[in-house]
Structure formats: structure tokens, C-alpha cells
Amino acid sequence: MDMELQRMVMEGYRPVSQGMFSQEETLESIVPDAFPDISRIVSAVGKVFLKDKELGEGSLRLSGTARVTAPRAGLFSSLVDGYESVLNRENILRLTPSSYRAITPEAGAAGVGRLVYGTGWSFVTMMREEDVGRMQPGDTLTLRFQKGLDRDMAMEVAYVSAEEDGRRVVVLASERYLQLTTLLRLQNAQIIFESYDGIRVPRSAVRVNAQPLTDEDGKPLLDSSGNPITQNLTCVYCLWGEKARSKPVKVLWQEDEYILVAPDEEALGKYTSEQTKESRRLRAGDEVITAAADLYDGKVIR
Fold first, then answer.
1. Is the dihedral of CA 193, 196, 200, 201 positive or negative?
2. Which of 192, 219, 242 delimits the end of a domain?
3. pTM to 2 decimals?
4. For residue 90, what are the domain limits?
5. What is the CATH number of the domain that holds 149?
6. DSSP state of 188
7. Which of 160, 269, 278, 283 is most buried, most CB within 10 Å of its CB?
8. Which run of H or E residues covers position 301?
9. Residue 265 placed within a domain
């Protein structure tokens, strides 16, 4: 009897759904400033690679990896929460306080991630009218997040809405740190309008005196007529060896218990000796005298 093998193609799988994704992942990434494009997607292909298979009762479970296509290069973020189509550039520049309160994510948003095009990002908030003050589009200020990003960022005011019930919507924009902000969404932040850099001293240490100017040895400086040179000085007294030495300062900021000061360069300029000038300059770490009566330059303290 003649026998021969017959070939039969059996369908082992078939598509059951298009555009359905089920994923579970945790992503934490820090992109160093030296390599700002390290997370940028350059190209992609549409293929699925089978990794594991598991046969169960009435089901077959497959797992693997997928590469998805993109129309152009962008910055990839795994966060997809439905705000992508709601908080776009066009919409946020038209927000009012009432529409800000009504912001909700788009229902049914899903996907493996999103691509961010461009380099800009925005921070949208609602502020009290008195806090907005004279803020105008084009102004620059500093934004400080409470968590998620440990640096201060210079932001440009992109939009200020009309006032509504004592509130305004403010949009701040930046072209920096995009790689560090793509996974951030709801954030508490401080808006810093001005900042000062100085030395904090107790309020009791700051004095305003009419004082004669002295040289390095404590001798009065004289004018061309031989009279002592005096001036009203805002100063602090510091220990210089066993004696008190006044150091001229200018006040930058005041609080109830302390004052932020910096060396008064104009007053220091009256000293002709560079050595004297530097000895009169207030520096961090100087031992400031806070409680003493009848202080004067050169008074013996110890």
C-alpha cells in the first residue's frame, strides 16, 4: 500500500484585539545635565518579541517585549494619565480660575507611554490676586518644588488670567530640565520673587552709631583740617582679639529676631589701607557681640 504525508497548516494564534495594552512597571530615572538627550527616542519599529509562554486551563499566556513606532523623535515618558490632551499648550493659555477648578483627565486614557516633543514645559497654578501683584507675562522668577526636583528653576511668566473671585491662573514656562520633569504632575511649589544673599545676625547685634573712622591701630582718621572723620554707620561689633571692632554693614532683609546683612562696600572704601579694609569686612564665622553696653571701637571686652 502506498502512503504519503499530507501537509496541513494549522493556525496557532490569531489577533483578538487591536490597541489593548496591559502593563505593570516601575520607572525611576535621573538624567544627568551633562547628557540632556540620553532619554530621547531616535527610532522605533513595530515588532513583538515572544519571551515566555504559559499554557493554562482554557487559556494561553504569552509575554514578551514590544517596540512601538513613533512619527518622529521625542522624549519618552511612561506616565499616561489622561492629562495629555487636556493640559496642552493651547488650552493652558486660555484657562480661567473656574476652568482651572474643573480640570479632569480624559477618561479611558491608556497606552505604553507618551512622547514629548520640543524642549519646553509649563507649570500651571492658581494664585490669590494679592500674591500675583504686578506679575506680567515676560517676567522672570524662581520656582522651587517641595519634592521631586532638588533645585531652584528660573521660570518665565507665560500667562496671567483675568481676575475671578480674587484669584488668577498663572502659567510659568521653561526650556530647561525637561528630562527631570516629565514624570512630575501634581506638585506643591514656592514662587520666589526676590532673594538675598548675606550673613544672618541677631537683631540686637546691629547698631547705628556716629563713629570716628580709625586705622588698623585704632587711631582716628583725620581730614585735611586735622579734625576726626566721623560718619553714621550701621555696623556690627565683632571680637578682634580682646577688643571690639566695628564692621560696617548694609541691611538686606529684616525679620523679628534677625537681620540679613552684607559688608558695606561704600563705607569700607573710605579706608585707604587694603589691610585695614579687609579687617573691617564682616565675614561668615566672625564672633559677633550681641549684648554689651557702651560699645565703641577698640573697647576691651576680655
1. negative
2. 192
3. 0.54
4. 78-110+117-192
5. 2.40.30
6. -
7. 160
8. none
9. yes
Per-residue pLDDT of the chain (302 residues; tens, 9 = 90+): 555 666 666 555 555 445 444 544 443 444 444 434 434 444 444 455 555 666 666 666 666 666 666 777 777 777 777 777 788 888 889 999 999 998 888 776 566 677 777 788 889 999 999 888 888 899 999 998 888 777 888 999 999 999 999 999 999 999 888 877 877 778 888 888 888 889 999 999 999 877 677 776 767 788 888 888 877 789 999 999 889 998 999 999 998 899 999 999 888 887 778 888 888 999 999 999 998 888 888 888 87
**What strands, in cross-sheet order, belong to the sheet with 74-77?**
40-41, 74-77, 114-116
Residues 6+ apart with CB under 8 A from 255: 203
Cell of 141: 522668577
C-alpha cell at 73: 523623535
DSSP 19-64: S-------------TT-TTTTEE-----EEEEEEEEEETTEEEEEE
Secondary structure of residue 236 in the 3-state scheme: strand
Place of cell 579706608: 271
Flag whether 137 is in a domain. yes
Within this chain, do residues 209 and 170 fall inside the same structural domain, yes or no? no
My answer on whether 88 and 171 are in the same domain is yes
- In a shared domain, residues 164 and 206: no
Count structural domains, the chain.
Answer: 2
User: Based on the domain organization, do 155 and 261 belong to the same domain?
Assistant: no
Residue 202 pairs with which residues in a beta bridge?
Answer: 258
Please return the burial class of 181, using the count of CB atoms within 10 Å of its CB with bins 0-12, 13-18 and 19+: buried
Please indicate, yes or no, if residue 220 is contained in any of the structural domains: yes
Beta bridge partners of 169: 126
Residue 9 located in a structural domain: no
